[in-house]
Design a protein that fits this description.
This protein has 516 residues and is α/β, with parallel strands linked by helices. The protein contains 11 helices and 24 strands.
């Protein structure tokens, strides 16, 4: 077996023409597992990653450096109307390098919807369970102990308990975790079992060569075959092309760039004739509430996410469900997320160590008439996208409900004040005032909405007129092109998505190898 390697942009000083069995675009949840499994099958694999190769030696737990190196558009990616902020990873390891370690298997109720509405019989709990078993073993996925949850998560745990709501402890992909709390900035001790420190090194040892700072620009295709992947090497500092080209000719091409970049690559390649590339994109829209406590919360310290509730995930016909978690609270993200005047924000930040923030993550895409978001190419911009997402009455009803429930939970856990993230924040001083939220401005740009989970845009299904890839993740009209990432999901999940993508990728590799 030939040892592979990781090659960074500065090392690529002249044009390269490569040949291999499989070329994989992207090194996140989907690309890493696909590469690893194909390499184990004895296939020669080349991976292309537009982000940089950053390791624990650079992870200094500072937000400016992390957002610059590890996030799409420096953490500033957003919908066109700026109504929703989009946090998405951009480096070797993709989103797994910066996520908060929450690991859930795909809920059976979601798989049932895929089966009944989209004709997807290939993916089931029975099919994925053997893969999840192996993944969980390799990534040390286990429930975070109750005695180790931090004060931020304890607010949610205690509030849920006092109100009698369903609650649980999150399973996390960590090993020898020091409970630092800076997972979103890259783990400085390699305790987070991201693709960066687990599956990618395994794949490289098995022979995979990964080119970082190398952006796939277009797929050449002829008839029913992709003939080449054309990429450009990016300058590490400016992220602009250096002029050096990389061309990969592979028997099979796998696109694993995520729910925004994968549709973008297909569109640049004029692969729009079938399906609805870049449409039906789901975002798990997130609403937040801040709670102030008399005691220190120090939400920047300790495992970021360790408690969840699915109590409201299914609210009945016609209503959008949501699930509850908490985020870490670090100074830069907290101050830029906070709304209100500059003076109000400054005052709030003086109480930074006593703040709890709660998340309501909304489950979009389950209603048959939902359109979701669209991703399109932005004219004249290098690797920038036009992203649209319209909030419907169902969204606004759920947003309002979620904020009221989060306020109830924060007060139940002992908050002395709870504040919404509206442009004109609603400040509540007791649970008796929660109905004041009914009169808030529930409309775009008037309340903070974010997303850290992007899904859809290349959704799978049997019908080429309504899907982009088939139930085995093969692009409908090409014989050697597969898409393996969150973009293939027909709906959102109602749970954090990384383990779903891990399982689908490991499963998909078994038949992708047969196409070589």
């Amino acid at each position: 077996m030939t040892q592979g390697r990781i090659v960074t942009g500065p090392e690529i000083t002249q044009d390269l023409n490569l040949e291999c069995d499989v070329c994989i675009v992207g090194s996140g949840s989907g690309g890493a597992w696909t590469a690893h499994e194909l390499a184990k099958q004895g296939k020669s694999v080349v991976m292309l990653e537009e982000g940089g190769y950053h390791t624990r030696r650079e992870f200094d737990m500072t937000e400016p450096r992390a957002f610059q190196n590890l996030y799409q558009e420096l953490g500033n990616r957003a919908t066109d109307d700026l109504a929703m902020t989009i946090l998405q990873g951009r480096s070797v390891g993709g989103g797994t390098t910066v996520n908060w370690c929450s690991s859930f298997r795909t809920p059976e109720r979601i798989l049932k919807i895929w089966r009944e509405r989209h004709g997807i019989e290939t993916i089931s709990t029975q099919t994925l369970s053997p893969h999840w078993d192996q993944i969980e073993k390799r990534l040390h996925i286990a429930e975070w102990p109750l005695e180790m949850i931090n004060a931020n998560n304890k607010v949610l745990w205690d509030g849920l308990g006092k109100l009698g709501y369903e609650r649980g402890l999150i399973r996390r992909n960590v090993n020898n975790c020091l409970n630092l709390g800076y997972c979103g900035m890259g783990c400085p001790v390699d305790a987070k079992q991201s693709m960066l420190v687990t599956v990618i090194p395994d794949a490289v040892e098995a022979g995979v060569t990964l080119y970082a700072n190398t952006s796939a620009r277009v797929l050449d295709w002829d008839g029913r075959k992709v003939t080449a992947v054309r990429a450009e090497v990016l300058d590490v500092a400016t992220r602009k092309p250096t002029g050096v080209k990389v061309v990969v000719k592979a028997k099979v091409t796998v696109v694993s760039g995520g729910a925004i970049n994968s549709p973008g690559l297909l569109m640049r390649s004029q692969l729009m004739s079938e399906g609805r590339v870049g449409e039906k994109t789901w975002f798990h829209p997130v609403l937040l509430m801040m709670g102030l406590f008399e005691h220190e919360v120090n939400a920047f310290r300790g495992a970021p996410q360790s408690v969840y509730s699915h109590h409201f995930v299914d609210r009945g016909p016609g209503k959008m469900g949501y699930f509850l978690e908490v985020p870490p609270v670090h100074p830069m993200l907290a101050s830029t997320t906070a709304t209100g005047s500059g003076a109000e924000t400054m005052e709030l930040m003086t109480k930074f160590n006593r703040l709890n923030v709660m998340l309501a993550i909304h489950v979009d895409g389950l209603s048959p008439d939902e359109e979701g978001g669209t991703v399109r190419l932005r004219d004249g911009a290098y690797n920038r996208y036009s992203i649209k997402y319209a909030f419907t009455p169902a969204h606004w009803e759920a947003f309002r409900s979620a904020c009221k429930e989060m306020a109830k939970l924060q007060f139940a856990a002992g908050a002395t004040m709870v504040r919404s993230l509206h442009v004109n924040p609603v400040t509540l001083n007791s649970a008796a005032e929660i109905d004041k939220l009914d009169d808030a401005a529930w409309e775009p740009m008037q309340v903070r909405v974010a997303t850290a989970h992007q899904m859809g845009g290349c959704r799978m299904g049997k019908d080429p007129s309504t899907s982009v890839v088939d139930p085995h993740l093969k692009y409908h009209s090409l014989d050697n092109l597969f898409v393996v990432d969150g973009s293939v999901l027909p709906t959102s999940l109602g749970v954090n998505p990384q383990e779903t993508i891990f399982g689908i990728a490991r499963w998909a590799a078994t038949h992708i190898g047969q196409a070589v």
